[in-house]
Design a protein that fits this description.
It is a single chain. The chain folds into two domains: about 50 residues, no CATH class; about 100 residues, Beta Barrel (Barwin-like endoglucanases), CATH 2.40.40.10. Helices cover about 20% and strands about 20% of the residues. Strands 1-5-2-4-3-6 form a six-stranded mixed barrel. The protein is globular and about 55 Å long.
């Protein structure tokens, strides 16, 4: 193998494949180096226990847009403002959520693209002033500029069933927020 950089090039030369020309050697080396570095990086993340912060971020949206990484914890002063929507199963009552639970339209649950599953959030409608505490048990929404999808019951309590969407403010729930509140 004297004169060849790797066994891949040597094997290709010895087998005589015409599509492996001298100019292709550099391209194959570049691709091999890239794949090798990605594999090594993911193995290091897995070994260090932070694979959720890096390797789990390789999912791509249908339009080719790379999604942001899923958060492993929620910072104390974290909050978000934007549009919320509500979702149902469309008559399919046995739909599984990202957490593995069966979707329950009567539960106070939500889908968020980044927050850890199980996170409890206080969602306040900017339109009605009502608020509700929900638990993140699914991923989404992945369309438009929406920041959270709510279960039909949570949407009903916020007064947004008819509109379909509503501007909201979300923040981590505090122990005193565990009861839904709504101004009369």
């Amino acid at each position: 193998m004297v004169g060849y950089r790797c066994s891949l090039c040597y094997t290709a030369r010895m087998t005589g494949y015409p599509d492996h020309r001298r100019g292709d050697e550099e391209a194959s080396h570049g691709a091999a180096r890239f794949v090798c570095s990605v594999v090594v990086t993911c193995l290091l993340f897995v070994a260090s226990g932070t694979e959720h912060a890096a390797c789990a971020t390789t999912h791509e949206h249908a339009r080719g847009v790379v999604r942001s990484p899923v958060m492993t914890s929620v910072p104390e002063n974290w909050h978000q403002h934007g549009m919320a929507s509500w979702y149902s199963t469309g008559g399919k009552m046995s739909r599984a959520t990202a957490s593995g639970e069966t979707f329950d339209p009567d539960a106070l649950t939500a889908a968020h693209p980044l927050l850890p599953l199980g996170t409890r959030l206080r969602v306040r409608s900017m339109r009605t002033g009502r608020s509700v505490v929900v638990r993140v048990n699914d991923r989404g929404p992945f369309h438009g500029h929406r920041i959270i999808d709510l279960s039909p019951e949570a949407a009903r309590q916020l007064g947004m069933l008819g509109a379909g969407t509503s501007p909201v403010a979300i923040e981590p729930a505090r122990p005193e927020d565990e009861v839904a509140s709504a101004p009369r």
